[in-house]
Design goal:
Layout (H helix, E strand, L loop, with lengths): L10 E4 L2 E8 L3 E4 L5 E4 L5 E4 L16 H8 L3 E2 L1 H9 L4 H13 L3 E3 L4 E3 L2 H30 L11 H7 L7 H5 L6 H10 L10 H4 L21 H4 L3 E2 L5 E5 L8 E6 L4 E7 L10 H9 L3 E3 L2 E3 L6 H5 L7 E10 L5 E11 L1 E5 H5 L7 H17 L10 E6 L2 E6 L4 H23 L6 E3 L15 H10 L4 E3 L23 H15 L6 H35 L5 E10 L2 E6 L4 E6 L9 E10 L4 E9 L1
Parallel strand pairs: 9-16, 10-17
Antiparallel strand pairs: 1-2, 1-5, 2-3, 3-4, 6-8, 7-8, 10-11, 11-12, 12-15, 13-14, 15-16, 18-19, 20-21, 22-23, 22-25, 23-24, 25-26
Helix pairs in contact: 1-2, 2-3, 5-7, 13-14
Length: 621
């Protein structure tokens, strides 16, 4: 509207509210509803009525019939003045303001003071229905909050808890519900609220989703070469080692056997056979890119999420068929445990699967006796060169048919034999790559900055203190010492179905053996970077999920009593390890027991969302 229409005592619209013009100079002086006066530009207001309006108090609602006016105008257009006269009988400042409020409300009318459109009957009906639904939803929300505060959540209220679930799963950072209830908006509080209201039960493990990991295997097809033993995977040049008995030694519940051992009595050579994953997973293939994105297989109590498609297990797992393809590391050692010769070749092997317990019972038989002797010599050599071994309690936490099963893992000699053989193969892979200028991802570890305090050798407290001094292992594209293993160079090579960088080692060695182009050091470094970004989340999820299911076990055994050992003292608090659960907890002990003192612990409470358990302390032994 032209500025000449803006005169003193006119009614104008300023920021959706009424105002009266007091003076018209270069700027307009306005009186607002709270009697405040301000100066604004003419273009900042909209004229509703030329006046005269002596006071905003005159804008009392006039009597009239807005609905009849709409019924007359439905589907047509009008002006503010015409609407005021039709609805309220006159075009006064009070009627103009009342008419504009009808327009601003939007149910019957919409537009500008110069051109107002009356909505159709259908439009009004839709708006009324929407407003009724909104009003009903407001009432339902208020009822839900009331129920929640009283602790009386019904199934019909569960829909409101979805935003709490999103926070608990890391999909959002806020929760309207927790905010309305005055609770801290954290994933732990969200988890606790979902348990409290029965939306979740104790079996919901939020950590894979919260940390952004997928729980589904790769949905990719394997190359055709694996499907038929007459095809290329078996028909390429391979060293036939089927005449040597080979043994895949693992836990009874392991379903992906990816390494095996055999011993040649004629040559005295130890063979470490590894699933030949690189025969199927070529660099930059879809399988390779998917494995790189995942980094590792995920081992959780409730599920195993493989790095490679599930079909890779029957294709490559050692001992799952009568004859298995492998990439085998032939290793000759001297009496001091030093590697004196290395042969690496694609092979065919006949593998028998054994548990650690079964292998342990046969260590006095051949070939287990000779393999054990080589493993002992190798371990002694590494210890001379600074290797450190930590023997803290370990357990297997698994969920089977809804039950949580916790098995302590005994420190069997067969485990040490297999562990040393795998380390030996890793050292051999590193030396093989260095001597032939094959770029590899090398696993390294810097030595501790400080030595652990002198404690009783082999005690649990000593092991715990030693672990605290260890630095995090790292991957590099150039060789460097691995302090913890006592090696000048090391490349993990025995789990290419479960660890991506092991697969890269296999890809590089296979390419070298076949005379194919190798990945460059920069290519390897890029793969190391991708894995170092992925692995921490996977490791954290495994740790959190194991704690979660251990706490579920304790919740289901409220009278649990067990033994703990004091492994560290910090002021008035002590760190206690519960060996049968491989659980660490901090306790305030009334006395000052020496390290390695045994305590009787009784479960007091479990805080599942915060991954914490509290124990009462009984008498020390």
């Amino acid at each position: 509207m032209a500025d000449t229409h803006l005169t003193e005592n006119s009614l104008v619209l300023y920021k959706t509210r009424p105002a009266r013009i007091l003076r018209t100079d270069e700027k307009l002086a306005l009186e607002l509803e709270d009697s405040e006066t301000i100066k604004v530009r003419p273009k900042d207001v909209i004229l509703l009525h030329p006046g005269p309006l002596r006071s905003l108090a005159e804008l009392r609602p006039p009597s009239g019939d807005a609905q009849t006016a709409w019924e007359i105008l439905a589907g047509g257009t009008t002006t503010l003045a015409e609407l005021a006269e039709l609805a309220f009988g006159a075009f006064t400042p009070a009627a103009a303001w009342a008419a504009w409020q009808l327009v601003a409300d939007g149910l019957y009318f919409h537009g500008t003071p110069e051109q107002i459109s009356a909505r159709t009957v259908e439009e009004v009906a839709r708006t009324q229905a929407a407003r009724a639904a909104e009003a009903a939803e407001r009432l339902a929300w208020e009822a839900f909050i009331s129920h929640a505060r009283a602790g009386r959540i019904a199934p019909v209220d569960h829909r409101y808890l979805r935003d709490v679930e999103d926070l608990a799963l890391g999909r959002s950072e806020r929760s309207r519900v927790l905010g309305a209830l005055g609770r801290e908006e954290s994933p732990e509080n969200a988890h606790a609220t979902l348990l409290e209201f029965g939306y979740w039960d104790e079996t919901v493990d939020p950590y894979p989703t919260r940390l952004g990991l997928t729980m589904t295997p790769p949905a990719l097809e394997l190359p055709e070469i694996w499907r038929d033993p007459s095809k290329a995977l078996w028909q390429e040049p391979r060293l036939d080692l089927t005449y040597l008995p080979a043994y895949a030694i693992d836990d009874a519940w392991t379903d992906t056997p990816d390494d095996a051992l055999s011993y040649d009595p004629e040559s005295g050579r130890l063979w470490v056979h590894v699933a030949d994953a690189a025969a199927l997973v070529r660099p930059q293939s879809a399988l390779d890119l998917e494995a790189r994105a995942r980094g590792v297989s995920l081992y959780l109590p409730q599920a195993v999420v493989p790095m490679l498609p599930q079909a890779a297990t029957p294709a490559l797992g050692l001992g799952l068929a009568d004859i298995s393809p492998a990439l085998s590391f032939g290793l000759d050692l001297d009496a001091e445990g030093q590697i004196v010769a290395i042969e690496i070749a694609p092979t065919l092997v006949h593998v028998t699967r054994l548990t650690y317990e079964e292998a342990d019972a046969r260590l006095k038989e051949e070939p287990f006796r000779s393999i054990d002797q080589m493993a002992r010599a190798y371990e002694v050599r590494r210890r001379r060169e600074g290797a450190m071994s930590i023997d803290l309690p370990e357990v297997s936490v698994r969920v089977h048919a809804g039950e949580v099963v916790i098995h302590p893992i005994p420190p069997l000699r067969s485990r040490s034999v297999v562990e040393n053989a795998m380390i030996l193969a890793g050292e051999a892979a590193a030396r093989y790559g260095i001597e032939r200028a094959i770029p590899l991802p090398f696993a390294t570890q810097d030595p501790p900055d400080v030595s652990p305090e002198p404690l009783v050798e082999g005690s649990l407290a000593a092991m715990f203190a030693m672990r605290r001094t260890f630095k995090r292992s790292q991957y590099r594209s150039v060789p460097a010492p691995h302090s913890g293993l006592g090696l000048s160079a090391y490349a993990q090579a025995t789990s290419p179905m479960r660890r991506y960088l092991d697969l890269v080692v296999h890809q590089q060695i296979r390419a070298y053996l076949a005379g194919e182009p190798l990945l460059t050091p920069q290519d390897v470094l890029e793969r190391v970077g991708a894995i170092e970004a992925a692995i921490p989340s996977a490791r954290q999820v495994e740790q959190f999920s194991n704690r979660h299911w251990t706490l579920v076990y304790l919740r289901r055994h409220p009278g649990w009593t067990g033994r703990g050992l004091v492994v560290e003292k910090r002021g008035h608090n002590s760190t206690v390890i519960v060996p049968e659960l491989a659980w660490e907890t901090s306790l305030h002990l009334p006395a000052d027991p020496p390290l390695d003192t045994g305590l009787t612990l009784t479960l007091r409470s479990v805080d599942l969302p915060r991954l914490d358990a509290r124990f009462k302390v009984g008498t020390a032994d």
